[in-house]
Design goal:
heterodimer; A: mainly beta; four-stranded antiparallel beta sheet; 0% helix; elongated; B: mainly beta; 14% helix
């Protein structure tokens, strides 16, 4: 099954010590828990292909949070937004058959 | 009545005074790689040489992770964030007595007897330099 990625664009942190970003999420109405263990490191990229590992593949809204991190694990305050996603592919056709003309 | 008063006084001493002594330091946050100005009061001796100023990056349970040291002749110093984190600041005066340095005690931001809050009253404080946050522009297909 192939899930076409949706790309999340982020504006880079202006901080010179930043070495990467972490992604957090939750399904509304649950708010995001920004405990460091919940974040997924995506590296120093600003166009992130979603879903990342562990992200639910849903058809609906997701709260997305992004933090910047430095080389000793300091994390910035998060940037957050709520966006619609459709990660659920259509069901496969069935009953494929052939008949005489 | 006297017994009750004594009990109440003891409770106040046990509850209120420890909380005054062990009040958590105020944390002053700054975001980004920015300058912060530190200042202190001091009457210089005739053989004053310089001030030694330190910011100490604190880890878990306030253990010192790294120390950044600076020297100045002034009563203020402007420090550009060395690295994001939470810091204790401290300063001491150094005299030069015929080529020998003589050091004052440190005045630490964690010592409420020595440190002043931004309100002007005595109190312990730390500085937290935070990393600048990114922006979410949004998803695109």
């Amino acid at each position: 099954m192939y899930i076409k990625p949706k790309f999340l664009n982020i504006g880079a942190s202006t901080d010179p010590d930043v070495v990467g970003y972490k992604i957090y999420w939750s399904i509304p109405p649950v708010v995001i828990d920004f405990s460091p263990v919940n974040g997924v490191n995506v590296g120093l990229i600003t166009k992130i292909a979603l879903p990342v590992v562990g992200m639910p593949t849903i058809d609906g809204e997701l709260n997305i949070g992004v933090t910047a991190v430095d080389d000793v694990g300091n994390e910035s305050d998060p940037a957050q937004g709520t966006f619609p996603f459709d990660f659920i592919p259509p069901s496969s056709p069935t009953g494929l058959s052939v008949s005489d003309v | 009545m006297k017994k009750m008063l004594r009990k109440v006084s003891l409770i106040i001493i046990l509850v209120v005074i420890p909380s005054m002594i062990f009040a958590q330091p105020v944390i002053y946050p700054y975001t980004g790689r920015v300058n912060v100005t530190f200042g202190w009061d001091h009457n210089k001796d005739a053989n004053f040489d310089h001030y030694e100023f330190e910011v100490k990056r604190l880890g878990i349970n306030d253990t010192v992770v790294e120390i950044f040291t600076y020297g100045t002749l002034n009563l203020t110093i402007v420090i550009l964030r060395p690295r994001a984190g939470t810091y204790e600041a401290r300063v001491r005066a150094i005299n030069n007595s015929q080529g020998t340095f003589i050091y004052s005690d440190w005045c630490s931001s964690l010592n409420p007897a020595c440190a002043k809050l931004k309100t002007g009253i005595n109190g312990a404080w730390k500085v937290r330099w935070k990393i600048s946050a990114p922006l979410i522009i949004g998803p695109i297909d």
